[in-house]
Task: structure prediction
Amino acid sequence: MADDPKTPPGVPQSILELSAFNPVARENPHGLLAALQSACPVMRDEAAKVWLLSRYRDVRETVNDRTYVRHPLNAEPGSISARFVEEGRERRASILFLDDPDHARIRQPLAKAFYARINRMRPEIEAMVDEVIDAAPEAGVFDLMEKVAVPVPVLVIARILGVDEERLADFRQWSEDVILGLNPVRTPAEDARLVSGAEALDAYFQQLIEARRRAPQDDLVTDMVQLQASGEAKISDDEVRTNLEALLVGGNLTTTDLIGNGIWLLLMHPEQAAALRTNPDLAAQAVEEVLRYEAPVQATSRIVPDERTVAGCPMHKSQPVWMSLAAANRDPEIFDAPQVFDITKKRASHIAFGGGPHICIGAPLARIEARHAFLKLLTRYPNLRLSDQPLVWRTLPFFRGLEHLLVEA
Ligand code: HEM
Result:
């Protein structure tokens, strides 16, 4: 894109430049985000047909405002947000893309069942984290992503849902396949995997729903069919399947990245790892600081529902507003020394889980898994350190996570 004479050099002018498709942003997006936040906090990207907000206050106000809409069918045609409508699947949006009344109709009972289950299962969830970490190599160099960060969330969500133990391997594979849907640039082979994985997962969930209806078990699928039967949840089987699948798509990669980014940051800052080893009560604050400092989900969005002024700029109905959670999390107006990773410091709330009606439903689960994983890893491996291999960040736009994290125990 030609330089606009009004834009200072170095200030990004498109969301593409800020995404992992740009090698500079992939390596470290924070310099570009800070430049954008100070020079152009409300950016217009004409190619993507979106606005991008990067100041904490603007982002917070927008996510919290219930009058914005989310369904991609409301987005300006040709805008990047409109491209989230999958052909033939327009009606099968999960809560992530639904608006009220459908959003509330599905989210309320799902959240109620999910939170009750997580609360009850907390000791089991921590035992599952232990199970995965105990199975990792005792010593030597290994990939922490492969051995710990990837398997933990898949195992936990499988057991919460009630996936049969003998189908765990299939379930892992299907989860990997459907996560490909997060990548807008897929090879034909990846497209085929996505379709076949989604079909297999859908068929399996329907089988589970029917099995639990006949013979209830102690799991989330049973909770959902019982809420349907009692009339408390007015949700079709199709909606149950779509939203249980959304827990995999929304929860697995993100929690993987929270664990991976966290261990990377702790090993990069040995004094912080030492502080956590000495005072395990810091674990909760450590998780929040990792979420603030390297937000696994870098952006979220809303759609302007009418003509209005947003963050001081006139905006039109249907225009998508993207928000950089990563930039907001390092806004110097809110966070003192925002570029410093410090798990010992009490800070204002970050915005890594978004906010308002769409705030991440899985936040409590991600927190339990990450807290326990950090403590368990630091205890099991007292001399854990980064290997000398260069880091490779994943090329998935607007998600921040490592492809591999080679560590030496
Ligand atoms: C560190 C881990 C995670 C991060 C950083 C994260 C981040 C986010 C963000 C930014 C949103 C959008 C919020 C908004 O637009 O205001 C979201 C929504 C969502 N997340 Fe998460 N998430 C994580 C873990 C999980 C987990 C573990 C699950 C499920 C088990 C999950 C399921 C969802 C779902 C279903 C939504 C849509 C909620 C709605 O629109 O009502 N996420 N998440």
In short: Residues 63, 95-96, 107, 157, 246-247, 250-251, 254-255, 258, 296-297, 300, 325, 352-356, 358-362, 365-366 surround protoporphyrin IX containing FE (CB under 6 Å).
